[in-house]
Amino acid sequence: MNKILIVAQKEFRDGLRNRWTGAITVIFILMSLGLAYFGSATAGVLGFSSLESTLVSLASLCVMLIPLIALMLAYNCFVGELEQGTLLLLMTYPLSNAQLLLGKFVGQAAIITLASVLGFGLPAIIICIVSDVDVVSVLTAFSQFIVLASLLGWVFIAIAYIISLSVTEKSKAAGLALIVWFLFVLVFDLVLMAILVASEGNISATIVPFILWINPTDVFRILVYTIIGAESYSGVLQIAEHGADGTVYLFLVMMLWVILPLLCSWWIFNKKELSE
Amino acid sequence: MNDIAVDLNQVCKYYPNVNALHPLTMSVKSGEVLGLFGHNGAGKSTLMKLILGILKPSTGSISALGHCPRSNQAHNYRTQFGYLPENVSFYEHLSGREVLHYLAKLKGHNKAQADKLLEEVDLAPAADRAVKTYSKGMRQRLGLAQAFLGEPKLLILDEPTVGLDPVATQDFYLTVDRLKSGGCAVILCSHVLPGVEHHIDRAMILSKGRKLALGPLAELRKAANLPIEVSVSGLTRADIESKMKGLISEPDWLQSSSEGSSEGALHNRFHSAAENKLDILRNLASEENLQDLHIKLPSLEDLYRYYLSDFNNAAV
């Protein structure tokens, strides 16, 4: 346990040192404030629009950005140390593969979490001070959003570890990370829509909502919509209205999306032989 | 206390295309220094990584400090390992001190010990600079410092003296001698043969994954039966021959570097079997004109060459 914290501490410090944490926080702050105050500019209105529309737009932006940020943060976590030669050294230290893996995960997950707390928390406080809003509901909604955003970040850190442990070159890991991002964030929804339209309703209506569970970004969006009680789902999420939106279940699905990739990377790590 | 630190039994490692290591049986005792020699690709690094548990043997069994290095609990015993990889590298953006503090914590030691080791390897003045500004020698010293963390019981060093200046090399061997007397088993892999000779108890020569020789240097010398080389100043060839009474035959004479090998030259060199050493000393030392006499025993390098060519000839 202690070893995990030592590794986590180093990863976290690295994140602070190379300004990842700061950069992500700033991006989050700009996104939230921008959407809160200028989100309805197209409608010809400036100023804080509404909590619901702010969070819905924030969620659609986060669905794109958080996976990308998490993948970029974590893709070279192992392959970088492999290329550097430090992984070889660490493997001769009194440190199990699981400890190293979990230590790195805890450290990098803490970076994303801290960035979400600051990056979404500060704008929430600013909104409460500057605008005439219901403080309690804004703070509740934003703190729930912080939890979900962090969770989405964790999922993609864990996925990045699978990539990082499967390849032996940093550049390959970067390419794969980009492909994974593209598949989950852009391709999946399009393909699913296309299939649903093409099948003309022949796919069993009870199964369809659960297909969304295959994609953690969709689970994230449904969760955000559920939490803020949004009336209208958009795009492919409409199919989720038919029963797959129990908050607890979805939360568990997200947790599974963290745990399974971690287990998978642990398995790859154990099989790996460092022969250079 | 278990006397055997490392034990290999019919250990073999093969990859789809190459046999990195042919079946090998050997052991290293506590308090013993084993020198490991061989060309690039001879299997030295493979052997080291097998002992450390980084690689899995294809067949055979390994025990390091009494445990299988690939077992699930093996990482607990690695507190007593010290390893210096070839071309060691660290976290470039951290300072030497931060790197060593991190590694010390992972091995369960405090920062004070890490700082003391930085002093010992003479890195204290540069300790707070980023590792990326370090020279090759400084990186190597940092690598040694991490290998020495926490009084290891098994030290595996791949090319430890590369990039070190003579003073640092001397300090390094002093530390190895100290750890050795504390019961640490050391496996030392080196290309720099002359320096290492006095610090190893046994030598193992590897080539293409095969063990060519293993034993104390004295035994290897005896088995190879390499000639000694005698340099004599102040005597002509004829003088020496008359004194030696047939101990030297014509092919034994070596070209004298300075003034050719003319009959009257006063510098002469010749080969002789090792057992004649005392006779030569006795016979020549009584000669009044003798100015200098130097006997060179076959060096580790000569032995290494001998065993390699022996192996190559056998293969042909």
Characterization of the model:
- In chain A, α7 runs antiparallel to α10 (216-228) and α10 runs antiparallel to α11 (247-271).
- Chain A has one domain (2-271).
- The longest helix of chain A has 34 residues, at 97-130.
- The radius of gyration of chain A is 20 Å and the shape is globular.
- Chain A contains eleven helices and no strands.
- With 276 residues, chain A is an all-alpha fold.
- Chain A is 75% helix and 0% strand.
- Chain A starts with a helix and ends in a 5-residue tail after the last helix.
- Chain B has 316 residues and is of the alpha/beta class.
- Chain B has two domains: 4-222, Rossmann fold; 227-297, 2-Layer Sandwich (Alpha-Beta Plaits).
- Helices cover 34% and strands 25% of the residues of chain B.
- Chain B has helices at residues 44-52, 74-77, 96-106, 111-120, 136-148, 166-181, 193-196, 217-224, 237-244, 277-285, 300-315; strands at 4-14, 19-29, 33-37, 59-64, 81-84, 154-158, 185-189, 202-207, 210-216, 228-233, 253-254, 267-272, 292-296.
- In chain B, a hairpin with a 4-residue loop joins β1 (4-14) and β2.
- The mean pLDDT of chain B is 85.
- The chains are: A mainly alpha (276), B alpha/beta (316).
- At the A-B interface, α1 and α5 of A face α1, α2 and α3 of B.
Main β-sheet of chain A: number of strands, strand sense, barrel status? Answer: none
CATH class of the largest domain in chain B: Alpha Beta
Low-confidence stretches of chain B: none
| Number of contiguous helices of chain A | 11
Uncertain segments of chain A are: none
Order of strands across the main sheet of chain B: 5-6-7-3-8-9
Topology, number of strands of chain A: 0
